[in-house]
């Protein structure tokens, strides 16, 4: 690319001769342009320019020198690795290009500044009109030099603009540049570079930003701008700290990592799922604990003040027995743990806490939150999947992505090797069969069920159905029970009135206004309170489920492992590899257990606010117990497979279970009347009436009216219709996007193929032509051929090169032979045209104001040894021209 | 910290956080693990020391990995080709293999790891070596020559979009970026 420089030089010479009165103001602007253009150059240019700076100013810049040697070292390093390596580097350039450009940007700026200074000095003597300005400039230059001593990558034009009034345009440009640097800093970690390079680029960019950020907001906005910058910095730092804090807060990271390295990511995915579940349950627990249980315990009426808060006389004797408590009866039943304990008082305590409302909203919120989080997680997982449905890369995926890098255990690694090998072989057989007898393929493809992931799904489905059957049997039994209790309640209610009547009749007959008789709340007859019964059932079920799980782990895994391990010494066959062996970790069973347990929690937590707490405890202990059990008594699975695709499968099941467990809960809330003498909703015909009650009492009357109108079917129905329509619309658009995606993919593929084909043809053609003497060949063709045969890197420069071409062409004709060689050396684009010698004279064909470099080029006539293009050993340009 | 607790300079820590996908804790942990690999007397200046390849490979995270040599080779900046690693190389490696690294950079390095002869493309030789790495050392698990040939043929048919007989970086990234497993399995956590 020295061609670019060369014409500029000449243009400068001419320019300063012909009209040196152009003035330095204009020059300043032009300088900016030059630097801008410099930004489009790539590394080779930079290096050369760099070397030139050094040649000119000797050891003035130590840091620069250091930089240079580092680069040289880098280059050597590259060379050492041979040509192949270099080729690859070029390939990787495509990614790193922008930043390289940036680097180049700075360098070339520096370069230009150098010239600019010279220009300023030489211009001083020549131009009287500008006597003052150059003086000023001299000072500026000094200042610049000082700055440069501190900072290796100053940019002349920018430091100038600091002192002269900045035009809007420059300001915008500067701002853009600073923004660019900031972006660079933010995205630096995405570059596939070595740390050293990243560090140096980071430092440069940071210095740049630091230096010029302040200059941006001149005038009235300056303070505000500085403040904004400062706040952004603080905010970034805070965010980073917060991220760190968040990662520090993730529990069991090390445990899971250890399991991951021993058993692969599929087993670990169970534990990650467990941890995720734990997080959700913590939040559910926080909701019920903070908004229901604690307020009731602190501000509600104390134990013993009401019949519903007292253990009945008949049970008093055994209420504290362990067996009773273990069964969640006795004192446990008449406590905040269960629905029945809560009073139907509208507000409690000095805070006027609306207990029934809170109870209801927490119940609804629990379910709503769970739905939201599950669906959100599913959506995120689906995004991660990236539409991995298409099977067009079956083998390649097996090849490139099947190794699980997390595996750190040699045994697991062996299993993984084996499973990869089998999958290769199976797939090969399949593809061979598919190739030779396509009709058989469909039959054979059922064999694909053999894949462990699919086998896992079958297994999951089977257990799922079983669990589901159990659950619904349980629910139906519960429903029967509820109906029985409701019947019983009617009788109790009737008996109550008789009992009350008898009470009054016995003592103060027919005086209803008299204060009620003090009866010990324990003696008051009470209804069966089906809600508490339901809650109790769920709690019992959860606890017994937990127990069973733990005992299974202890017996099935631990005792078996102990037996196999120690009886192996005195047994007649090899226990470790023979019949009992160690157990494998049963992912599907455990995941399903977890999911069903969670379903139980969702179903029961409305009637037993303690359920999330119990579940948190269960998950916490099972995390430790299972981690321990896995590490000490299980062996890695025979077939280690990755879990990423199973994740959303788990989630889908969770969602399904959530839906299923919401149904009965919602049904009981909406259609069964609450018990008359227990729970926060006693005395209402339906539980949700608490909402309308609150609306009536606690909101202004207009709100109730608005709510009434809003819930009117005339409004609700259109709203639902609208939602359905929008869902339909979104669905349709997403489908069309998918199709468009596919279309584009096809296009891309065919285009790539087409390109390649064309390239090959051209390369062939050019090769043929190359064999003929290139002296005779017409220039145009040479240019075309050039385009094709130059390596990637040169192509990339194309844009910059084209621009150069426009400014550069005319001067070229008048320039010396040495220059031509230089131009040739770098980029063959221009030469063919110039060689013909039929180009217009220099002053005409400038399609664009030439980019000046100050007046400086006087001292450096073309062909001077300082000229970068002359440097030997620059591996640019097509070899055909050598 | 193994005995002599030399600390990572504060500003360096900040810079590393800026330049890698690692969090502060992870960098500190990496530093700790790295200095543990060094002999006692070198732990003082762990930032400038280099750990030889043989020591790096004792890390349990790399021990069972069939690509351990390639990983060392790709991330090492050593001048004399012994694949030793400095702390910065080590961080580079962990950053690429971390959870939060983009799949772009992961696939870039995966390509370099699989490119056994460092020539910028995956040709038949590279693929063969890759298959051998994946099928393990055991003789019985090796694929036969015919199988190997067929497998490589299949892979090239799928991935070699421009049909030049090799897989280049962009083809590789095109294939890998669509894989649902890649980002989750191309991961090493200390």
UniProtKB/TrEMBL annotation, chain B:
Question: Could you state one GO cellular component term attached to this entry?
Answer: filopodium tip
Mention any Pfam family matching this sequence: EF-hand_7
Q: Which PROSITE patterns match?
A: EF_HAND_1, EF_HAND_2
Keywords of the record: Calcium, Magnesium, Metal-binding, Repeat
Name assigned to this protein? Calcium and integrin binding 1
GO annotation terms (biological process): apoptotic process; cellular response to nerve growth factor stimulus; cellular response to tumor necrosis factor; cytoplasmic microtubule organization; DNA damage response; endomitotic cell cycle; negative regulation of apoptotic process; negative regulation of cell population proliferation
The protein's GO terms of the molecular function aspect are:
calcium ion binding; calcium-dependent protein kinase inhibitor activity; magnesium ion binding; protein-membrane adaptor activity; small GTPase binding; transmembrane transporter binding
